[in-house]
Every structure is written in C-alpha cells, then in structure tokens.
C-alpha cells in the first residue's frame, strides 16, 4: 500500500507530498492524520528550515474525501492534534505551497494556510463548499478574503467557479506562476533564499505576522513595535550586522544587475 504522504529532504528543505493521485489527493481522515504528523515532524526537526507542500500529479488537493463523507465519516472526526489545518497554521518555519494542479475547497484551505504560493501553469483554484452543501471549517472565510479581497472571495465561494493560475496571480492568490516542470525547482530556490537569512529572525517575523493578522490594524502597529523593541533589547553584534549588510548589498546588486 502506498504511503498517503511522502517526504523528501534536500539539505534544509523538506518537500511534503500528498500522495493519493488516484483520488486527486482528496483529504481522507487517514491522509489528514498522516499529513499533520509529517508537518509536526518537519516543524520540530532541527535540520529542517523550510517546508514545501505539494501534491502528486495531476492535482494538488481536491478537498475533503466526499466518498468517505458519503459513507458517514463526519468532517469533525479528527482531533485538533490530527488536523493538518491546525498543524499548518501553527508552523514556526516558512511553508511554501507548490500548487501543481486542481486546488479546491479543503485543498484551497490547505494552500491558504501556507506562507506563500507558487502555481504551476496547470493549477486551478475553487471553493466548492456551498456546491457540496457544506460551510468551511479550515479557514476559508478568514484566509481567502485576506488573499484576494472580500468581494473576490465572496464570488469564488457563492459561485463555486474555478479560476486558472494566471487569474489567481492577478487576484493576488499566488505569488508566482511557472511552467509545470519548473514548479518544484522554483520553490526549492525560494526555500534556499529563505535559508540564507538568520533563522531566528525568520521565525520571529512569521510569528509577528501571525499575531498582527489576528488583530486590528491599530493593534498590529503596537504588536510590531513591541516585538521590535524586545528583539533589539536582546542585543546585537555590530560586526555581524555589518557583515550581513555587505552581503545584502552584494546580493541586491546581483539581483538587479547593478
């Protein structure tokens, strides 16, 4: 029997793959539990600095397993500890969603819980909760409006229509659209870029984003100010800061061609 979730680690980058291609990686209870375990393992592994989440072709994830639901398995069967949505939302390390194909409903909620998304040209996105007769429980009504704006989110949810990768990029749902064959190499390159940065700072930045997102704009400013003061209060090594500054200057010049 095939593993429902596979992992592959290259250096400090771990790729986690949903592996039910025959079911378009639909989220059965067993797959959800295995995915949560894999995410927790990556988050606690000292040797892993960044996670890439993807699906086995041809889909990223079609959402909850409707066949399983039709057999009476309730969506709320899993505990919070076994929920991949909880695991993703609490990750301390950067998570990149590599969207290789159809990404629908619960699958879209998984994608939205990642820090940012890269889409294959084959990617398609849709929220079909209402078409199935469900309301979301994995963060759709919170995370989708943050990504595309309230009106676009409402349109996706009340029509159940799919959008392609280019439209997702234009709406701000994904950061990049790349050729299908380049999807994982491109994501690994972004992951490698994130690893070159001070990892304590990266994790503190992600934690700050999470705190600010859960508040009002005014409270967000206060949180950022508090975190900045606490961070600076821990002390800096001037020589280390100067070395990093020079490295940033050289990297910037190489990226913009000057």
Helices and strands in order:
Blueprint lengths: L4 E6 L2 E6 L10 H16 L5 E6 L3 E3 L4 H5 L13 H6 L5 E5 L2 E3 L1 H8 L2 E5 L3 E3 L2 H4 L7 H9 L1 H10 L3 E2 H7 L4 E3 L4 H13 L3 H15 L3 H17 L4 H19 L2
Parallel strand pairs: 2-3, 3-5, 4-6, 5-7, 6-8, 7-10
Antiparallel strand pairs: 1-2, 8-9
Helix pairs in contact: 4-6, 6-7, 10-11
Please explain how this structure is put together.
The protein has 258 residues and is an alpha/beta fold. The chain folds into two domains: 191 residues, 2-enoyl-CoA Hydratase, Chain A, domain 1; 58 residues. It is built from twelve helices and ten strands. The strands form two sheets. The protein has a six-stranded mixed β-sheet, with helices on both faces. The protein has a four-stranded mixed β-sheet with strand order 4-6-8-9. The longest helix is centred in the last third of the chain and has 19 residues. The model has no long low-confidence stretch (mean pLDDT 89).
């Amino acid at each position: 029997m095939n593993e429902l979730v596979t992992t592959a680690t290259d250096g400090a980058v771990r790729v986690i793959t949903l592996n039910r291609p025959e079911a378009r990686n639909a989220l059965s209870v067993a797959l959800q539990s295995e995915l949560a375990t894999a995410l927790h393992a990556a988050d606690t592994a000292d040797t892993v600095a960044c996670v890439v989440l993807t699906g086995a072709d041809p889909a990223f994830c079609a959402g909850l397993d409707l066949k399983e639901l039709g057999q009476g398995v309730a969506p709320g069967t899993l505990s919070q500890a076994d929920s991949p949505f909880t695991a993703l939302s609490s990750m301390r390390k950067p998570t990149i969603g590599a969207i290789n194909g159809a990404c629908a409903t619960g699958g879209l909620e998984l994608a939205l819980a990642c820090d940012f998304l890269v889409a294959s040209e084959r990617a398609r996105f849709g929220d079909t909760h209402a078409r199935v007769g469900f309301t979301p429980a994995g963060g759709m009504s919170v995370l989708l409006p943050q990504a595309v704006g309230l009106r676009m989110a409402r349109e996706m949810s009340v029509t159940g229509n799919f959008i392609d990768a280019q439209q997702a990029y234009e709406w701000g749902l994904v950061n990049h659209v790349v050729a299908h064959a380049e999807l994982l190499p491109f994501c690994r390159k972004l992951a490698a870029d994130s690893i070159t940065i001070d990892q304590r700072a990266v994790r503190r930045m992600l934690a700050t984003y999470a705190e600010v997102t859960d508040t009002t704009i005014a409270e967000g400013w206060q949180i950022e100010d508090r975190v900045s003061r606490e961070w600076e209060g821990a002390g800096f090594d001037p020589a280390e800061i100067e070395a990093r500054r020079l490295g940033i200057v050289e990297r910037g010049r190489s990226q913009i061609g000057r």
